[in-house]
Specification:
7 strands, 3 domains, 5-stranded mixed sheet
Length: 358
């Protein structure tokens, strides 16, 4: 079962290799203790997990294209190795990042704590912080198992993510959060002997309310007071092209200027759209639709002037809608987009400054 799970993880993405390696360590370590010093049994178990993992990955690729069986590769299918090589070259650049009004390229250690603060409901975050301390209420054997089976892979994944070449959204930290929640679930043991069940029930109820409140635009949701989300986070923490069909429906009959953050196949598929990037602001009159991530992480010389104006609406919380009665100014604007304003037309509400200073 562990080998099949590892095979699925490795097939799904490169971090699956890390999880598979950790799983083998866990199997060997736990088996070494459980077999009374007969380490060879634990080693055989570890080799079995490794073999099943590799066979599973080969099976997946062979099911998609049997010709991979004819390609020479020592362990994993050649397309898988080519994919890893591609990611190592093309997915490690210094992409622009945005958080709390600041924009930069590369990594900053405070990015992940800040992102978790914005994207995780505050009560859930409280459980994540307090929950692991509740491990003191469980047996010593249970604590050891949690540290080995839950904490170890979580730490490995967290270290890999934090050490990555760029910071680009909470989605990369979701597996760590899932494992973290497992460790924090020890708080249930505490509620059995202190009057904490009421508090835990209130937290669960609040989580249900927040989840319902986020629907149907859950990707763009941010915890209060960090709203609207596009003023605080970018990339997959606010949008990943999920509102394309809403934008497509809205655009009909408006002929908007559009700059959309999504797959290349969709960026130019909006009906009646005119390209926003490359169009001088002194020629723009009418509707403008731009993804929030583009405003906060793109070249300041291109679209930062929009941040000096307030949008009149948003689509799903991830796409900002502007409308101009007259051509706007072309001076550089601040990094942080403005909040939605009342009225039919956008207006300038901030003094233009150098992009990145706002």
């Amino acid at each position: 079962m562990v080998g099949l799970a590892c095979g699925g993880a490795v097939s799904a993405g490169p971090t699956g290799l890390l999880l598979a390696a950790v799983a083998v360590v866990v199997v060997v370590t736990s088996g070494w203790r459980g077999q009374g010093g007969q380490g060879w049994r634990a080693l055989v178990s570890g080799l079995a997990v490794t073999a099943i993992t590799v066979v599973f990955v080969w099976f997946v690729y062979a099911a998609l294209d049997a010709s991979v069986l004819l390609q020479s590769s020592p362990v994993l299918p050649r397309p898988y190795l080519d994919g890893l090589h591609y990611l190592a070259i093309h997915d490690t650049g210094g992409e622009s990042v945005y958080l709390f009004g600041a924009s930069w390229a590369g990594r900053r250690l405070w990015y992940w704590p800040g992102t978790l603060l914005v994207k995780i409901p505050i009560l859930t975050l409280l459980v994540l912080i307090v929950g692991p301390f509740a491990l003191r209420a469980v047996s010593r054997q249970a604590r050891r198992e949690v540290l080995l089976v839950v904490a170890l892979p979580a730490l490995v994944l967290a270290a890999f993510t934090i050490a990555g070449p760029q910071d680009s959204g909470i989605r990369y930290m979701l597996p760590v959060i899932a494992l973290w929640l497992v460790a924090a679930s020890a708080i249930v043991e505490v509620t059995r002997w202190i009057p904490g069940s009421t508090v835990l029930a209130a937290i669960a109820a609040a989580a249900v309310v927040m989840s319902a409140d986020s629907f149907p635009h859950s990707i763009a949701w941010t915890t209060p007071p960090f709203t609207p989300g596009y003023e605080y986070v970018s990339h997959s923490s606010i949008d990943w092209g999920q509102d394309f069909f809403l934008l497509e429906q809205w655009s009909r009959g408006r002929r908007p200027y559009v700059s959309f953050f999504g797959t290349r196949a969709l960026r130019n598929a909006i009906p009646g759209m005119r390209p926003l990037v490359g169009t001088s602001p002194d020629r723009i009159v009418g509707w403008v639709a731009v993804s929030a991530t583009i405003l906060t992480t793109s070249d300041p010389a291109e679209l930062s002037w929009l941040n000096s104006y307030c949008p009149v609406a948003t689509i799903g919380g991830s796409i900002l809608i502007y409308r101009f009665r007259h051509p706007p100014g072309a001076t550089l604007g601040p990094t942080r987009p403005a909040n939605v304003c009342e009225g039919e037309y956008s207006r300038q509400i901030r003094t233009a400054t150098l992009a990145g200073a706002g």
